[in-house]
Amino acid sequence: MHYKDSKNFLDTPKKILKVNHAGEFGAINIYKSQIFVSKFFMKDLVPMLQEFMSDEQRHLDIFWKEIQQRHGVKCKSYWLCGLGGYVMGFVSALLGRKGIMACTWAVESVVINHLENQLVYLSDNEDVEAYDAVSSILEDEKNHRDIGQASKGATNLLYKSLRSIISLFTEIIIRFGMR
Ligand SMILES: [Fe+2]
Ligand SMILES: [Fe+2]
């Protein structure tokens, strides 16, 4: 998605920050439910998922700090992201470890694509603080995606529809938040 100047009361950087903030809350909830299920069936995955979740918590704080700094707003879909994230994490974890990794890969791939387009917009508009906030999380998200990819979550054919549904849902919720 190409990021353009906002046509309503909230400027594009504020929209980007609120959408990313809500997205991080969604991500936290994905990992929270996956950790919950993994504690029963896939204990070895728990440390990695906890590490991912603490990355997302740090990202959430970065965006919230920047939102407050410029008197931005919390996204209307904040709680929806949390709920959607929890459900997506839960369902994917019930499909096993490849389900978990397929979910991570699908979400992060969509997110990274948006982050990169946001960076183009923010650099064109010389919003240094928002640019720094977005760029500071990019490496973590790439790392999450690559781990999802390495564990065949990205390629296993059986999980193709799971990946498609998750990608679609992630894309819709981001676009919805940017309106
Ligand atoms: Fe994140
Ligand atoms: Fe992430």
Give structural notes.
This protein is mainly α. The protein is built from six helices and no strands. The chain is elongated, with a radius of gyration of 16 Å. The mean pLDDT is 96. It binds fe (ii) ion (2 copies). The site of one fe (ii) ion has 6 residues, from helix 1, helix 2 and helix 5.
Descriptors:
Ferritin, binds fe (ii) ion, mainly alpha, 179 residues, 0% strand, 6 helices, elongated, 79% helix
* The named CATH superfamily: Ferritin, core subunit, four-helix bundle
**What general outline do the C-alpha atoms trace?**
elongated
Mean pLDDT: 96
Helix content: over 70%
SSE blueprint and pairings:
Elements: H1 12-41, H2 46-69, H3 78-94, H4 97-124, H5 128-150, H6 160-178
Bound molecules: fe (ii) ion (FE2) (2 copies).
Gist?
The chain has 179 residues and is an all-alpha fold. It has helices at residues 12-41, 46-69, 78-94, 97-124, 128-150, 160-178.
